[in-house]
From TrEMBL:
It comes from Mesorhizobium ciceri. The gene is glf. GO terms for cellular component: cytosol. Keywords: FAD, Flavoprotein, Isomerase, Plasmid. The lineage of its organism: Bacteria, Pseudomonadati, Pseudomonadota, Alphaproteobacteria, Hyphomicrobiales. Its EC number is 5.4.99.9. This is UDP-galactopyranose mutase. It is an enzyme of class 5 (isomerase). One of its GO terms (molecular function) is UDP-galactopyranose mutase activity.
Length: 380
């Protein structure tokens, strides 16, 4: 009998496993379908000895000191400020759009005040900003929307930006200075030994047992447990009984080249050309020295593991119905990007997991044994 079964060994599940094991001194069984811990943040050394991110680049950034303090128990950090270029009209330009982006694209010499006037002269008035397209055209105008955003968004999501929630592009700032950092958070660093090593240290506790390549649906009736934390897709937990929630997936093409460097920054976006959305070169992220270099090409798709909830009104409505079902299940906590149908950064998932643990501490007596029967109610 385990006190807790946790489904999913990504950030949400691993943080909660560590907190329950170390602070409540209760037993945890952590299961994951994949052959490794770390979820999408998993990294590993390839055949060339280069540390790569198997599921695309993960750059840690946050403004929360408490989240930094928590994770720092399990890793040291390497300072890294993420910079991204976009291949637009045959030129590599900084993204998010800043002063250098506009000056180089149009051959201008604007200052910050003049750039604000430039944007103001091109903005479209949108009375009710509802879609991803509305956000961009009302900020920088139609031409920059077409050059930088429309093609990338269509590739990423498989639909036009005017069919997507404004949240898709609201995350991307526009700057009138020369700050070319992709993020502006106060803390921007990478785990010095990689994400996987950080997860392994987090989960190195005698109260935690890990079962990989294990499907929750196959063991839920075979292994006794008292309480459940579920970080997988919420519609799958309920056997898709209300219909399937749409997710976008990614196909990754990993390549190693016999040259020291391929591109000037870690990530180059391709909003206008090519079938892939971006190319990542990992040595920029890790600071590794190697005569060869490793890249990942990303191809968005509807087929494969769920990565991104698709932000459309009808999908949010369906999720709310699943969320209501989840509220009827005693002793089950739904946590993380897939279980709450939200796009979260890594620090936000850690914060959500720590907040969930705080609620558990308030509501669940330690060493209580309520039995497992109620967990199956409402679930198929």
């Amino acid at each position: 009998m385990f006190d807790w079964l946790i489904v999913g060994a990504g950030f949400a599940g691993s943080v909660l496993a560590e907190r329950i094991a170390s602070q409540r001194h209760e037993s945890v069984l952590l299961v994951d379908r994949r052959s490794h811990v770390g979820g999408n943040a998993y990294d590993c050394y390839n055949e060339a000895g280069i540390l790569i991110h198997r599921y695309g680049p993960h750059i840690f950034h946050t403004n929360s000191q408490s989240i930094v303090d928590y994770l720092s128990q399990f890793t040291q950090w390497r300072t890294y400020e993420h910079r991204v270029l976009a291949a637009v009209d045959g030129i590599l330009l900084p993204i998010p759009i800043n002063l250098d982006t506009i000056n180089r694209l149009y051959g201008l010499e604007l200052n910050s005040a003049q750039l604000e006037e430039f944007f103001a002269s091109r903005r479209e008035t949108v009375e009710d900003v509802r879609t991803a397209e509305d956000v961009v055209v009302s900020t920088v105008g139609r031409e920059l929307y077409e050059k930088f955003f429309r093609g990338y968004t269509r590739k990423q999501w498989g639909v036009d930006p005017n069919q997507l929630s404004k949240s898709v592009t609201a995350r991307v700032p526009t700057r009138t200075n020369r700050d070319d950092r992709y993020f502006s958070d106060s803390f921007q660093k990478m785990p010095a030994g990689g994400y996987t090593r950080m997860f392994e240290r987090m989960l190195d506790h005698p109260n935690i047992k890990i079962m990989l390549q294990t499907d929750f649906r196959e063991i839920r009736d075979e292994i006794p447990f008292n309480r459940l934390i579920y970080t997988g897709p919420i519609d799958e937990y309920f056997g898709w009984q209300l219909g399937r929630l749409p997710y976008r997936s990614l196909r990754f093409e990993h390549v190693t080249l016999d040259q020291e460097q391929f591109q000037p920054v870690a990530v180059v976006n391709y909003p206008q050309t090519e079938d892939y959305t971006r190319i990542t070169e990992y040595k920029h992220l890790t600071g590794q020295q190697n005569a060869r270099t490793s890249l990942t090409y990303e191809y968005p798709t509807d087929i494969g593991d769920p990565y991104y909830p698709v932000p459309r009104a009808e999908n949010e409505e369906l999720f709310k119905r699943y969320e209501a079902l989840g509220a009827t299940c005693p002793d089950v906590w739904f946590v993380g990007r897939l279980a709450t149908y939200r796009y979260y950064n890594m620090d936000q998932v850690v914060g959500q997991a720590l907040a969930t643990f705080a609620r558990i501490q308030k509501s669940v007596p330690e060493w209580a044994s309520a039995g497992k029967a109620s967990l199956a109610e409402g679930a198929l």
